[in-house]
Amino acid sequence: MLVALILAVGIAGTVVALKSHESNAAFVLQQQALAPVAPAALDQLLLTSRDSRPGYGGPSARARGVHCSSPTHSALGNPWTCVVRYPRPPSVRFGVIVHADRSISGFGQPISGPLLHPALTVSGCCVETP
Predict the structure, then answer these.
(1) CA-CA distance, 124 to 106, in Å (whole number)?
(2) What is d(CA 8, CA 5) in angstroms, rounded to the nearest whole number?
(3) Do the domain assignments include residue 25?
(4) How many whole angstroms separate alpha carbon 54 and alpha carbon 86?
(5) Cβ atoms of 80 and 96 closer than 8 Å
(6) Is residue 8 part of a domain?
(7) CA-CA distance, 26 to 36, in Å (whole number)?
């Protein structure tokens, strides 16, 4: 009976340890050996975004220009700061996170004018590899 209990606890501990590695983004990144995210690749993805400011949307409201930069030198480069220029000013500054699966998410505000509540959002998939 005691041996069966010890065996059950050992199996449960192994399952928990394996599950914790599955959801750890840093572990996944290390195992996949992802190529670094290039600013130009993130720029290209954000060029497909539409203006999400209230009253600024429409069929021709796609981004006209994007400039992304990162202060870090990690593979994913998080956090990114991206300034997106739309057809109608002002431009929008987004804080963007690139996830291990190379999808993105972020929040932003117009560079000038009143702050928007809630903040603007951007998301998409996926930043291309070089």
Answers:
(1) 10
(2) 5
(3) yes
(4) 13
(5) yes
(6) yes
(7) 14
